[in-house]
Structure formats: C-alpha cells, structure tokens
Amino acid sequence: MEYNNIIVETEENIAVLTINRPDQLNALNSETIAELGSAFKALEADHHIKAIIITGSGNKAFVAGADIKEFYQFDIAQGKELSANGHQTLFDLVENLNTPVIGAVNGFALGGGLELAMSCHFRLASDNAKLGLPEVTLGVIPGYGGTQRLAHLVGKGRAMEMIMTAKMVSADEALSYGLVNQVTPQEELLGACQKIALKIVKNSPVAIAGAIRAINAGYTDGVNGFEAEIEEFGKCFGTEDFKEGTTAFIEKRKAEFPGK
User: Fold this and answer.
1) Catalytic residue at 44?
2) In sequence order, what DSSP letters do the residues of 115-176 get, joined into one string?
3) Residue 190 CB neighbour total at 10 angstroms
4) Where exactly are the structural domains of the chain?
C-alpha cells in the first residue's frame, strides 16, 4: 500500500515505520494518524513481521505534536470526537497490538508525539531528545491518552508536574523517570532498537502477544491482571509454540517457533 506521510520498510522479520513529514517536524494530522493506523494493522496481519520500530524522519523530531491548524476552531462535540477517533484509530491500537512496537524517539516528542511514543510497548531515545506534553499552553489537555499513560509510566506526581508546567524533559531525565528504557547517540538509535528487536524475534510471537495482553490488563480498569495472566498462561499450553519451545529445551537445541 502507498502512503503520503509514512514510509514502511521491512527486513529480517522487523518493520521500520517512519513518519515522513520533516517540513512539519512530523506533526500528526488526521491523514497521518489514519495512515499509521492502517499500516499498524497491516503489519500485525503479516505473520512474517515479529517486531515494529516507529520513528520520525530527519534528525530534529520524532513527532513535534499534533497539527493544530486542523482543530483550532473545533467546538466541544468536535473536540470529543477528535480525541475518541484518535484513541481508536491509532493510540489504543498500538498499545494493544499483538506485535511488539518499539518507539525510537529521535529529537522532539511533544504532545501527540509523546502520546504516540507512550503507546508503544517501550521506548529508546536519542541523546538530543526532548519529551513533553505542552497542551495546557494552548488551553487544552492531552487528548490521546497522555494524562493516563504518562501517570502509569512516571507516577502521578511527575505526570501532574509535567502536564501542569508544560515541562519538556531531556533524554536523561526521561530515562531517570522510566519514560524511556535507554538513551543512545542519535546516529546509533535505530541500530540499538534493531538490536533489541532481533532478540525479540527469536522468541515465541504467540507467547509475546499473550504477555502484552496480560501486562496491559494490569493497567485496565475493572480487569484483574493476575487473572488475565492465569488465562494467558493456560492458553500457551495449547499452542504449537509451547510444544516446540519445551521440546527444544529438552532436546538441548534452539527453538524454531512456528508462531501458532
């Protein structure tokens, strides 16, 4: 499929999805959100793809925010619809994707950009990255999951401070907060993400998808994460991956997981 605002490249069971609007610092407009949602669904359906890395083009920004020109004249109903559609089309989709998604945060990740990064299963950042949710400077709050995911990742107090002050944090601060897993020089960022992705693709994709669901369950209102873990653990015993993994262990060989 051809896209106007993103580039999808695949190699060795790994897809690299690049937001390609460098003149707008990769800002998220409605077309880009729709294209990203479509691309993530297609990659999840492709059983050859076992890990996805998402990044931004150029060396200035992962995503510098949402495209304010699209919604600055919206009313209350339109604002609610904008947020709800974004959650459904992209941000919730990424968080609950069965295929692991690594955020490669190169440069600015602000507003919707940080919200997209936080939707990923984990994040690495370049040493020049700046991360923040500046929405209150525009008279609005984060609307694509930022108030929820930031608090889950860094704690309520830090989330309150970052959102209320519109504070941008450096890559090193983000690392100390637990907002990113690792900081690298910018030129090494994609390589570091690919190195981790190569470790992921050696493991059972069925088990990894189950682990994603179980972990996310613990952060979902009204869902008992321990019960979800028991359910997902039990389901593994009926998979070909479980049979292959345990047999390979007993036979002292490397497992070749069929992904079933």
Assistant:
1) no
2) HHHHHSSEEEEETT-EEE--GGGGT----SSHHHHHHHHH-HHHHHHHHHHT-EEEHHHHHH
3) 19
4) 6-200, 205-250
Q: How many other C-beta atoms are found inside a 10 Å radius of the C-beta of residue 223?
A: 11
Q: Is 9 a catalytic residue?
A: no
Q: Which fold has domain 6-200?
A: 2-enoyl-CoA Hydratase; Chain A, domain 1 (3.90.226)
All residues at 6 or more sequence positions from 140 whose CB lies less than 8 Å from its CB, including other chains = 79
Question: Which of 44, 95, 115, 232 is the catalytic position?
Answer: 115
Instruction: Say yes or no to pLDDT of 168 above 80.
Output: yes
Which long-range contacts (C-beta less than 8 Å, at least 24 apart) are formed by 238-244?
A: 239/204, 239/206, 239/207, 241/204, 241/205, 241/206, 241/207, 242/204, 242/206, 242/207, 244/204
pLDDT tens across 64-105, in order?
998 888 988 999 999 999 999 999 999 999 999 999 999 999
- Residue from 81, 101, 135, 105 nearest 26 by CA: 105
- What is the reported pLDDT for 11? 93
pLDDT > 80? residue 1: no
Task: Report whether 106 contacts 189 (CB < 8 A).
Answer: yes
Exposure of 157 by Cβ count < 10 A (0-12 exposed, 13-18 middle, 19+ buried)? exposed
Catalytic residue among 35, 44, 95, 135: 135
Mean pLDDT of the 22-47 span? 96
